[in-house]
Amino acid sequence: MAGPSHQTTLTVADEPRAPTSWQRFRKHRMAVVGTVVLGLLVALVLLGPLIWNVPIDKIDFRARLAMPSAAHPLGTDDLGQDLLARLLYGGRVSLAVGFAAMLVAVVIGTLVGAVAGMSRGPLDAFLMWLTDLFLALPTLPLLLLIIYLFRDALKGLVGPEVGVFVLIIAVVGGLRWMPVARLVRAQFLTIREREFVEAARALGASRLRQVVLHILPNALGPVIVAGTISVAEAIIAESTLSFLGLGFPPDTPTWGRILFDAKDFLSIAPHWALFPGLAIFLTVLSINFIGDGLRDALDPRKVR
Amino acid sequence: MKEQEIRGLIGRVKQGAMSRRDFVQRMLAVGLTAPLATTMLAHNGIAHAQTSFDYTPTKAGGGGTVKLLQWQPASQLNPHFAVGSADQHAIYLFYEPLASWDEEGNLTPILAEELPSVENGGVSQDGTSVTWKLKRGVTWHDGTPFTADDCLFTAEFASDPETLAYTMGTYRDVTFEKIDDHTIRLVFKTPRPFWPDAFVGTRGLILPKHLYQDYRGARAKDAPMNLRPVGTGPFIITNFVPGDLISAKANPNYHVPNRPYFDAIEMKGGGDAASAARAVLQTGEYDFAWNLSVEDEILDSMGASGQGEVRLIAGANIEHMQLNTTDPWTEVDGERASVTTQHPVFKDKAVRDALALLVDRAAIAEFIYGRSGEATGNFINTPDRFTSKNTSWEFDIDKANGLLDAAGWVRGRDGIREKDGVKLSLVFQSPTAGQRQKTQTVVKQACEEAGIAMELKVVAPGIFFSADPGNSDTFGHFYCDIQMYTSPMREPDPGLFMQQFLSSEVSAKANNWQLRNVTRWRNAEFDELEAAASVEMDPVKRAAMFIRMNDLIVEDVVVIPLIYRKVAAGLRTGLKAPLSTWTSYLWRVSDWHYDA
Description:
The structure holds two protein chains of two kinds.
Chain A: H1 3-11, H2 21-27, H3 29-51, H4 83-118, H5 122-136, H6 139-158, H7 160-174, H8 178-191, H9 195-202, H10 207-243, H11 255-262, H12 270-298
Chain B: H1 3-15, H2 20-29, H3 34-43, E1 65-69, H4 85-90, E2 99-101, E3 107-109, E4 112-114, E5 129-134, H5 148-159, H6 168-172, E6 174-180, E7 183-188, H7 209-212, E8 235-241, E9 245-250, E10 264-268, H8 273-282, E11 288-289, H9 296-303, E12 308-323, E13 331-332, E14 335-336, H10 349-357, H11 361-369, E15 373-375, H12 383-386, H13 397-406, E16 410-411, E17 417-419, E18 422-423, E19 425-431, H14 434-449, E20 453-459, H15 461-464, E21 482-488, H16 494-498, H17 524-533, H18 539-555, E22 559-572, E23 575-576, E24 593-594
Parallel strand pairs in B: 1-10, 1-11, 19-20, 19-21
Antiparallel strand pairs in B: 2-3, 4-5, 5-7, 6-7, 8-9, 9-10, 11-22, 12-21, 12-22, 13-14, 15-22, 16-17, 17-18, 23-24
Helix pairs in contact in B: 2-3, 8-9, 10-13, 17-18
Protein name (chain A): ABC transporter permease
Subcellular location (chain A): Cell membrane
Pfam families (chain A): BPD_transp_1, OppC_N
């Protein structure tokens, strides 16, 4: 771990020794723990099914609602399906959906927020109206409409599973960019009036340069935190969609789906809800800590 | 089961060798309804029995407020606009019919003095007229007396095409005559085999003429009474929030002595079946909840606290799978599943037969539906199978594999069978409900073992059951290979239910997918039988025809019946309530009480 940082310090020998981003990130203990946990989770869902090769949909009524045991390390659900196998498989879908939807939300949100924050006047007003409009839109009817309009077309284009995946990411991400946009705009409004930006402007920096080099890096902190939260939201939102019959087929065991199926059985088979809940909890928490660490590491003010 | 056998059974009931209840059970088992069964008995001189129910309170009132949870809430309170069952149930708090059906399908007088029958001259021998005697001394909530004019007005109101009442069919082809203030006569154009329809049960609630007479036809939708009903029922409305809450207080002038026991009633909507079950069985916040379609284990764990108990009420709700007879994946003239096409896979009967063998009904009934469901193949019934409940269906993957092999469906490299370049790959849709998705999973797994690939699809119930012509996910479009849902046979007469397999009822773009034959199955023999049954006066001959119609559907595997479902209600310990699935569960809410 110390290797790369060692090298960087060598190349910039003449300058005052500001710690690099990586060094600052490393100092954030929880962020490092978060990275390790998240890495473990990703490794588990990617490699786990190769080792634990119990079928995810084998129904065994004799073993229904079984508590954790050697045969079923995490127990079974009410059809007697092995929960470990389902969690490992479902994690791939859930994590992919969570990250991809977060990216969509952050990219759109940042773009809208930045443009609004930089342009004074009608464009800003218009973009904020748009944001308010999206916030006010009833999500559910909109979702139904979008899925109804595009599901079959996308299915024909890229196949049923990928089609649904793309659609869910677009829908979940596309309806969650508004808080990010507002955050970014608010940040931009304050930062663009700061002395260092004024200085850059006085030196003749173009607008784009001001934004990319000076304002955006300073505004990134809240965006990263908002982004990490939206990963969790996306994982849960995906399960809502499945419930409405708009998401993945009901036998695809995403984490949200398992949690949803288990909720009524909480008092008789707590393990069923516990493990997917734990998986989502750990994922979200690690991402949050990583976000925290990243914010500190990337904050230009800390470079001095 | 043939006509002679039904006659034999009726003979045994007459002699006392068989109980009424057993007879009704057997008729239910062959796909008929309890009201039809008791009507058969009545036609043969065995009167409708009065179900015994011990009403112990000796005076009206004193019961405090009873709190009901009907999680599917009512949206309006005019009985003739009540398309959904939520409205139909709630309205019984306020309005009443002349007679209604009890749990076992017996007709019970409510606003009628007595039941018409052939013996007392109320029903004419040729079946073309029925005379009702109305109860005297009944008043509307505002004090106006209830008379024959109200009945005649209700018929006129409902049969007016501009009113757009869903009960129009019931009142349309009947002539109503007033004999005196408390006697009315119904004259039918053709003999009416099943006459207890107008003024009976869910479709028979009577409106007050003096209030509704200014709101006929197109104006009916604007009547303030649609939200603040004034009826003859045991409760008077005090507050109604559509989709949420109904509050009512006891009717002090109710026409049955010593009733109602409760001083007020509160009916709350919202939530889902599981939360409703919890509110009655576990926390005891509510006295009663209707339609608790929740897994057995959950009900058991909630009931463990002893606050309440679950009661199961039999009806004729059959959870079943439907097989599309047309091709849902090819578009012809702007619609899929056009009647000009044939289903690419199901046109081979071997595939349909194999599919029926791949449904593990026993496991589904035992592990998914528990107490509230019974495995059934009993849509189909031939005489030798009649005595056994379990011979008419089987679960046998090997046999299914054998059938498919013999029919030339060969497994491809991916394990999926194909024939002439057509893959045995199916899409199976159903409305969202925990139990249904589990059933889908069980079916899918068995199919995979037989080399049939299956994609599962769920649709939100609000969409699935809607009549929206623009949404292709409704059950009416059936743009899918297989679909599964419960057909509630709410109408006491199977005549209406059977119409969903008529050739003339095929659901298509031309009729905006509003007609009822969604499988688009067409069969000349069935059509002829249906036509004959609609005018057959002898209820026994008619029943035999219905049974034959059932056989046709199941033998041709148009539907695969799965589970005979009962409705689960949650009652707080000690609450005494006569319920029914043939009409509103509130049909005798006047008699609900706690024992002192």
